[in-house]
Design a protein that fits this description.
Layout: H1 2-8, H2 17-28, E1 36-38, E2 44-48, E3 51-55, H3 62-78, E4 87-88, E5 97-99, E6 102-108, E7 113-114, H4 122-139, H5 168-186, E8 190-193, E9 202-205, E10 208-212, E11 219-222, H6 224-232, H7 243-255, H8 260-284, H9 292-306
Antiparallel strand pairs: 1-2, 2-3, 3-6, 4-6, 5-6, 7-9, 8-11, 9-10
Length: about 300
């Protein structure tokens, strides 16, 4: 896991806006009068009107970028009602082009604000859950070699984080996961999953779900992990009830039923993602860099409540 964590934090030299502007014109025939750099973790992203240009991290292999684009196109073809971005082909009919030696692609812009910036009723999360379930279902028929990847954020890899934490609560979860969840996951349904349905990747516009973003963590994994990842971010900082959590779960299962064995693992998978989020972000000093102890403490409080689940 150490290598995977290093890859998440691997630095790169940003592309200048003028280079991005030239690339849009040369490869896509888009002449941008205004270009805005967007804040992203692992690539250079620029908005130009109703499209965005994403220039991949230099270390990202071509097969990975191809998989992400192919997954979005597959979803749009399988279930056009799912609000994912469209891939805009180059003038030569390709999904990508080379910009400063790096792979670049253009996606459509979706108007909206991240759900985590909004005060929304629980019924909204039932709709969001149903849409995430439809996304899981749409990806069930998707096949691509790039999805069979080593990814630090893939839930079954939690036991590899054991040496990255000394927190007794984290170690308890990791050991229980290795002993009981890991063997169970191996026999459960697997497919390509979106794997990143947190509220920052869900857009709301006019009170409706407007977009599901970011296929950067898409991976071939246990199907149930797609639900568990999304639910992790809906655990309130306190004891039950968790209205958003319950509404999302209900909506998801209405669109994508899971087996009893999958459902039985959800609490431990949510606990696992909570530990993974805390340990990885603390190690990389991302979400936790401003207040690492406060970030960890909040997640540990949530973890205690999650582990009370039957």
């Amino acid at each position: 896991m150490a290598l995977a964590l290093d890859e998440l934090a691997e630095p790169f030299s940003p592309v200048e806006p003028e280079t991005a502007r030239t690339a849009l014109a040369e490869h896509w025939g888009i002449h941008a009068t205004e270009l805005t750099r967007l804040d992203t973790e692992r690539d250079d992203t620029f908005r130009a009107g109703d499209v965005i240009l994403k220039i991949a991290h230099p270390a990202d292999p071509a097969q990975l970028i191809a998989m992400q684009s192919a997954a979005m196109m597959h979803v749009r073809a399988t279930d056009p009602g799912i609000p994912v971005q469209d891939v805009v082909l180059t003038m030569g009919g390709e999904a990508t082009a080379r910009v400063s030696g790096r792979l670049a692609r253009v996606l459509t812009w979706i108007d909206g604000e991240p759900v985590d910036d909004q005060e929304l009723p629980a019924r909204f999360f039932a709709v969001a859950g149903a849409m995430q379930g439809r996304l899981t279902a749409a990806l069930a028929g998707f096949r691509h070699p790039g999805a069979h990847r080593s990814l630090a954020w893939d839930l079954p890899r939690l036991p590899e984080l054991r040496d990255a934490t000394s927190n007794p609560l984290h170690l308890e979860v990791i050991d229980r996961f290795a002993a009981t969840v890991s063997p169970a996951l191996e026999r459960l349904p697997h497919q390509v999953i979106h794997n990143d349905g947190h509220p920052g990747n869900l857009l709301v516009c006019g009170g409706r779900l407007a977009g599901i973003l970011d296929f950067g963590d898409a991976v071939y994994s246990a199907r149930v992990c797609d639900l568990a990842v999304a639910l992790t971010y809906l655990v309130d900082d306190g004891p039950r009830p968790w209205p958003e959590f319950d509404a999302f779960r209900t909506g998801y299962l209405a669109a994508q039923p899971l087996t009893d064995e999958e459902l039985a693992l959800v609490p431990m998978l949510v606990a696992a993602r909570t530990v993974m989020r805390t340990v990885i972000n603390h190690t990389l000093q991302r979400d936790a860099h401003a207040d690492p102890h406060g970030f960890s403490a909040r997640n540990d409080r949530k973890l205690i409540e999650i582990l009370k689940e039957p």
